[in-house]
Write a structure and sequence with these properties.
The structure is a homotetramer. Chain A is mainly alpha-helical. Helix content of chain A is about 55%, strand content about 5%. In chain A, strands 1-2 form a two-stranded antiparallel sheet. In chain A, helix 1 packs across helix 3, helix 1 packs across helix 4 and helix 2 packs across helix 3. Chains in contact: A-B, C-D. Chains C and D meet through helix 1, helix 4 and helix 5 of C and helix 1, helix 4 and helix 5 of D. Chain B binds a DNA duplex (15 and 15 nucleotides) through helix 3.
Amino acid sequence: METEFDITRPIYLQIVELIKVRAVREFYPPGSRVPSIRDMATEMKVNPNTVTRAYMELERDGFIFTKRGQGSFITEDKERMNKEKTDLASQATQLFISNIKGLGLSKIQLNEIFGQMKKELDVAEN
Amino acid sequence: METEFDITRPIYLQIVELIKVRAVREFYPPGSRVPSIRDMATEMKVNPNTVTRAYMELERDGFIFTKRGQGSFITEDKERMNKEKTDLASQATQLFISNIKGLGLSKIQLNEIFGQMKKELDVAEN
Amino acid sequence: METEFDITRPIYLQIVELIKVRAVREFYPPGSRVPSIRDMATEMKVNPNTVTRAYMELERDGFIFTKRGQGSFITEDKERMNKEKTDLASQATQLFISNIKGLGLSKIQLNEIFGQMKKELDVAEN
Amino acid sequence: METEFDITRPIYLQIVELIKVRAVREFYPPGSRVPSIRDMATEMKVNPNTVTRAYMELERDGFIFTKRGQGSFITEDKERMNKEKTDLASQATQLFISNIKGLGLSKIQLNEIFGQMKKELDVAEN
DNA sequence: GTGGTCTAGACCACA
DNA sequence: GTGGTCTAGACCACA
């Protein structure tokens, strides 16, 4: 099984993204400790090795840093976090555009959609 | 393994959606024949039974109709197709909102995003 | 082989009807659990997939509802059950008519038949 | 495959009944020739041996008689034919009763059914 | 335990 | 060729 529709990606990458989303949303605030590999593996029901790989990726990426014997911590680098936030927003935007493009929606329909988005995201129309 | 990361959905439902997207985008125009179960199974690298299930779902749903011995065809019901288009747009919108919400983006950032979307989707700002 | 004699219908549809008959006759009362897929497959000596298909059909039809991990249950919707009862009666009636029609029975013979039916079905003649 | 619901019976018996129904309805009038084994086998898409067995059954039963080299013919015995007619009517009646019994229909519903039957079978109510 | 999904492969009816 | 049905059997999620 593996098709152009199989949207599964490696589990370790899914964990990488989860950590990023949680950090950006300050569920894991800057400088806070992320769950231990063991705990995360239990939560995710995956093998600890998989979590290890995810944390290695995050560390190489500068998103977390590890203190021997103490655990891993979210970066306190605000620039870094902002970049991540921007990336996530950008990915979401690109995904939306590619999903919507080609549907042949009318401008009226598109404007309705934007209206809804602005309302739900608290962006005042002027 | 079942985690909040596991975004896999049943393959047959992924095929259902693929057909819908292709039809709404008129890659499969109204009334046209969709690939045979065998061909689709080959294309997707899945078992023919899985495709059969997807096609059954689509037929039950009134999205395709089947002529025994001849194949399956996209509905010519314009209302039906419009409803599907609206649904796809709505799903994409909801997904975007849930992805973006909670990132704590500023109004300036959000407006930039809307500007980009409008540009790529050819919606004139006024 | 496909002749006007071949009265076989798909096994899964035969199971669908069996469940309906048993429910209408309250062998499976409203809200009661129907046998598990495995048990029914064993009872019927068919493959579990075939029973699964029958149960899917019944669920789609609103005749049973399924609780994951617990089993499938007969609808408690009385309207639904009454409709089913009426349908079964109607089918039986049509079958009888088509079997009897064209035999060229005399009115006397037909009236004898009705008399027998009324007697066995406890419908008082007046 | 073979369950309590599998209502298939031996093909040769199905052919036996078909011939009887056709004869009683005078599609094959008394004394007329029934199709040759070969023709019937072709019509039914079954093996000639199967038809042979059906015809043997019918002959043993006195329903048809065979003239060497000429074919098989429907009995001209009117008593015999009447008995057959009565049997078919009786079978249909019993089937109807067993289908309807236990459904718990009200007398009103049952009387509606009888009304419909009488109408379709041209039995005047008085 | 329960149902849900999937594969591999067979055989059939229809055209 | 097309879809329809079925078997045998695997593995999974849910409870």
